[in-house]
From TrEMBL:
Name of the protein in question: Type III pantothenate kinase
GO cellular component, one term: cytoplasm
Names of the cofactor(s): NH4(+); K(+)
Residues that hold substrate according to the record: 91, 98-101, 177
Length: 243
């Protein structure tokens, strides 16, 4: 049996098809319609979607695909399970915790025991603390890289993404508006994550997300490209048995 796992974030959709040779992909929401669904769903008996956005469009599209196929079931989760055995929530309202944060913690746990710092550099940058005993010990949410820049473009009159300026992708002080904003946003992200790593040296960092590759390289850490999908895969057996 093969399963199609989808991680529907606020910016993009990522997927993994679990076969003996798993395949991965990612796209913008606007590109979903033109995907080759026939080959993507070939041999797939279950589709499992974790969604943090209000992605009615994706849901409708998948429901249409499932309706025209026999033996293919759609499972949609938009909040953490409150009572997954072996995981202890700290939110008084666990359903308010982003399902991507929860899954990234489950995914990281697959790779390593001990105290973990799960860092997802996506649309937002989130950091979550997972104890050795799988207790969620809280976390942080701050704007991601693109959103940080966007806040400046939108809320000031003269901070403008001039078309004739170029971002060098570095951390040095900027010499035009675009570089000042871009390098500033990068430094803010790096300094934020580093300060937490410094305060919790016993926690192993796991960095994932669209900006995670850059962040991990800058911090000299490994990059884990698919922690949310790893978490979905972990969940599969236990979750499906409840359906
Ligand atoms: N091709 C791309 N399209 C969009 N964002 C990109 C791209 N490449 C890198 N990024 C970066 O990835 C970040 C978005 O992360 P990601 O792709 O993980 O989105 P997401 O899964 O929607 O995020 P989240 O799960 O937090 O909602 C943006 O801040 C952006 O800077
Ligand atoms: C913080 C984001 C946007 C990160 O993708 C997501 O996990 C989310 O919408 N969370 C809900 C709020 C919370 O986690 O407390
Ligand atoms: K502006």
């Amino acid at each position: 049996m093969s399963v199609l796992l989808l991680d529907a974030g606020n910016t993009r959709v990522k997927w993994k098809k679990t076969t003996s040779a798993p395949t991965f992909g990612r796209c913008e929401y606007a590109e979903l319609q033109s995907l080759d669904w026939d080959s993507l769903l070939d041999g797939v008996e279950r589709i499992l979607v974790a969604c943090v956005g209000n992605q009615e469009f994706l849901r409708e599209l998948l429901q249409q695909q499932v309706a025209i196929r026999h033996n293919c079931v759609l499972h949609w989760i938009d909040q953490p399970l409150p009572d997954l055995s072996g995981f202890e929530h700290c939110y008084p309202h666990p359903e308010r915790l982003g399902v991507d944060r929860w899954l990234a913690m489950l995914g990281a746990r697959q790779h390593r025991p001990g105290d973990l710092l799960v860092i997802d550099a996506g649309t937002a940058l989130t950091i979550d603390f997972l104890s050795t005993a799988n207790h969620h010990d809280g976390g942080f949410i701050v704007p991601g890289l693109a959103m940080t820049r966007q806040a400046l473009w939108q809320n000031t009159r003269r901070v403008i993404p001039w078309q004739d300026e170029q971002d060098d992708g570095l951390l040095a002080p900027g010499r035009d508006t675009l570089q000042c904003v871009s390098a500033g946003a990068r430094r803010q992200q790096v300094a934020f994550v580093r300060s937490i790593m410094d305060d919790y040296p016993g926690h192993s960092p796991f960095i994932t997300g669209g900006d995670g590759d850059w962040l991990a390289t800058t911090l000299g850490q490994p990059y884990w490209p698919e922690l949310v999908l790893d978490g979905l895969e972990t969940l599969c057996a236990g979750y499906f048995s409840r359906c």
